[in-house]
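Researcher: Good morning. I'm working through a list of sequences from a screen, and I'd like to move beyond sequence-only analysis. For each chain I'm collecting a predicted structure so we can compare shapes side by side. This is the next one on the list. No need for commentary yet; just the structure.
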Amino acid sequence: MLFYLSQYVHDRVAETEWADYFSYLRVFRYITFRSAGAAITALVLSWVMGPRVIAWLKELKFGQNYADKAEETGGMAARVLDKKGTPTMGGVLIVTAMDLSALLWAQWNELVVLTLLSLVVLAGLGFYDDYAKVTQQNNRGAKSYVKLCVQTLLALVIGGWLFLLPARSQLITEIMVPFFKYPVLTGVAGLGLALTVVTIVGSSNAVNLTDGLDGLAIGCTLIVTTVFLILTYIAGNTVIATYLQVPYVAGAGELTVFCAAMLGAGLGFLWFNCHPAQVFMGDTGSLALGGALGIMAVLIHQPFVLLIAGGVFVAEAVSVLCQTGWYKYTRLRYGTGRRIFLMAPLHHHFEKKGWYESQVVTRFYILCVLCAVVALSTLKLR
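Model: Good morning. Structure tokens for this chain:
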């Protein structure tokens, strides 16, 4: 919005005596300037709205009034604070700040609009799940198949839309792999569509599974978002993309503004979510943030880079899949289910081993930074 308003004013005063006074409006043409503005705006919005949203959630009694998974299993010597009653659905704060900031600072194109709409859809799905958890006595929330169906349908719509647009179809028909300059496969629309679904659905659920300790999911999300802040800027700049031999995607630079808004909103939320947390993001935030990362990875033709940058998310999701699969297999084979980890997702395994919550979070941050550095190295190692 600010971009269009600034250009309107700049064009109106051009070739008049006022031209020099309004020449500064040219800065709105630069993605870097608007990205900085988006990040600061989202951060301030989060700080301003945070206490009000937390109070509103408490008033509605949208709190975690049930034992979390760690407490249900017992044996958590490091868990000294009771998390019951802490407001959930804090993702409303993140998504609202992100959307308002991105709409204010981004130059709207189909990539930005698609990402923003998808963010709202996934946030709505997460809100429905959180609402079901706090209102149902069994605290199970929405059925797993319902969430998977909505996520898959959204991913199919995105993939189909990209495939049907001639200017964007290569995002689906070509498969890019890190450390390779050129597509490893071309003309594989079916495989590309399947990869799109796996990327978006997998990323959304992986972040959701990581959300279990104060500041863990949002902190790791901020680190991965920083990687995509860089990647989207490169993908949208034809000179840099050509130099680094990565896919150029017209209009992808505006996703940098979205990433900046995501960083600002995430930092603002972390202010309230750091240990001891005043609010949890819930599925409202985790499904939306994870899905946004997956969508951006698809839109800049780098889904496998997300696999590297989000290594912590991948490890969390794989730990759950392995634990569940092995338990079911051994129960059928031996009559008694056996476990690989003391508890899944992985962060709870280390809690069971005696790590303090802050230790787990900090060490996972370090691992996430390492994954981010490896992901960025793919830009030069080709």
